[in-house]
Amino acid sequence: MPFPQLLRLTTLFTFLFLHSPFTTYTFALPLTQQFREAPQFYNSPDCPSVDQDDSYSDSSDGENDLLCSDHHAVHVAMTLDSAYIRGSLAAILSVLQHTSCPQNIAFHFVAAASANTSLLHATVSSTFPYLKFRVYTFEDSSVSRLISTSIRSALDCPLNYARSYLANILPLCVRRVVYLDSDLVLVDDIAKLAATSLGDKSVLAAPEHCNANFTSYFTPAFWSNHALSLTFADRKACYFNTGVMVIDLGRWREGDYTAKIEEWMELQKRMRIYNLGSLPPFLLVFAGKIVPVDHRWNQHGLGGDNFRGLCRDLHPGPVSLLHWSGKGKPWARLDANRPCPLDALWAPYDLLQTPFSLDS
Ligand SMILES: *[C@@H]1O[C@H](CO)[C@@H](O)[C@H](O)[C@H]1NC(C)=O
Ligand SMILES: *[C@@H]1O[C@H](CO)[C@@H](O)[C@H](O)[C@H]1NC(C)=O
Question: What is the pTM of this model?
Answer without folding.
Answer: 0.86
